[in-house]
Amino acid sequence: MRISVVHAHPSPGSLNRALFDTVCSALDRHDLYRFDLYADGFDPAMTADEHRAYLTENPISDPLVRRYADAVLESEALVFVYPTWWAGLPAILKGWMERVLVRGVAFDFDEQNRLRPQMQHVKRLAGVTTYGSNRLAVALTADGGRRTLGRTMRMSTGTRTRTTWLGLYGIDSASDAQRKAFLERVHREFSTW
Amino acid sequence: MVRALVVFSHPRDDSFAAAARDEALAGLDECGAEVRVIDLYAERFDPRLTAEEHRLHRSDPSTKPHIAAHADLLRWCDTVVLVYPTWYGTLPAMLKGWFERIWVNGVASEVRTDGRPPTPLLTHIRHIVAITSHGSPKWLNALQGEAGKRMLKRALRISIGTRCRVRWLAIYGMDRNAEPARRAFLQRVRRRCARMR
Prior knowledge:
Number of strands of chain B: 7
Helix content of chain A: 25-40%
CATH class of chain A: Alpha Beta
Structural class of chain B: alpha/beta
Order of helices and strands of chain B: EHEHHEHEEEHHHEH
Strand order of the largest sheet of chain B: 2-1-3-6-7
Number of helices of chain A: 8
Mean pLDDT of chain B: 96
Shape of chain A: globular
Number of domains of chain B: 1
Strand order of the largest sheet of chain A: 2-1-3-6-7
Largest sheet of chain B: 5 strands, parallel
CATH superfamily of chain A: Flavodoxin domain
Shape of chain B: globular
CATH superfamily of chain B: Flavodoxin domain
Largest interface: A-B, 41 and 43 residues
Low-confidence stretches of chain B: none
Number of helices of chain B: 8
CATH architecture of chain A: 3-Layer(aba) Sandwich
Oligomer: heterodimer
CATH topology of chain A: Rossmann fold
Helix content of chain B: 25-40%
CATH topology of chain B: Rossmann fold
Number of domains of chain A: 1
Order of helices and strands of chain A: EHEHHEHEEEHHHEH
Radius of gyration of chain B: 17 Å
Distance between the termini of chain A: 9 Å
């Protein structure tokens, strides 16, 4: 399977980075695109020119965005590894959705100018994330990141796309044993893909 | 007197969001508010939290002098007006990053050492007004789970406490909206802001 794994954490020494490495090694018999958005220097802010071109047939002008978009077009699975901040995706990953998942990649228009999903080739989606809050607080604040990936993104992939969700809750108070157990759980999950 | 901090996040000054910002400013002027504006794109704000900031996320804000100007505005205001387009179901990256980098420990809330929930530090903010536009219709956003609305109405409580009013002024279905619906929304924005107390 061709899989894009997208990572969004600024610190190379973070647990999140270790999760990214674990996901990639568990998936190594597949054809992987590995994207580390911070290392790539990706700028998440949509530009005025991109906004003007948004509904045209050529919405992408940045070569890095083009590279990400081409990978998405080829992928049968997308995996996102990121920390949940303010109950949602970190800005750098949110901006990746805004700039990469555009017309011709995530959606298009038919002859009657109706919006049509364009990512049915993505059969599996996965989110691997760390939460500062415990499970109850995450539930109370509605887990916006999970909604973005599990619902908004499935507007483009279709609802038959399977989603897998792996979260480590209360990371600030998690023990080393809990972190290690989570890394193992992530490895086990992706080894079955 | 109302002290309003208006935070604007759109790359274009000829956008509908910019028109909504102007109506909000006109309304706030009518109600006699003192106003400060943060235009994130015009300031070339970088929404990416840095590795250094992540390392210092539990430290005192004095370790991050580069966020002091925006943090001071948060301490000064009693009303925050957010004007932005909803993209991909929630706040645009630019505005999301503003929360991540400015609403930090010691500015927005304070982590406690006794294991209890953090102490909110922005309880002087009485109103948050979100003014936003959605390309897709309301039912579609409901299906997507309104992550942006929930972030503001729920997740922010950790900083603003439970008494702050979070008002949601949203126009849906912008992709198909005719001029009258847009005009009516802009008037609604102005009226709402003119009534702030």
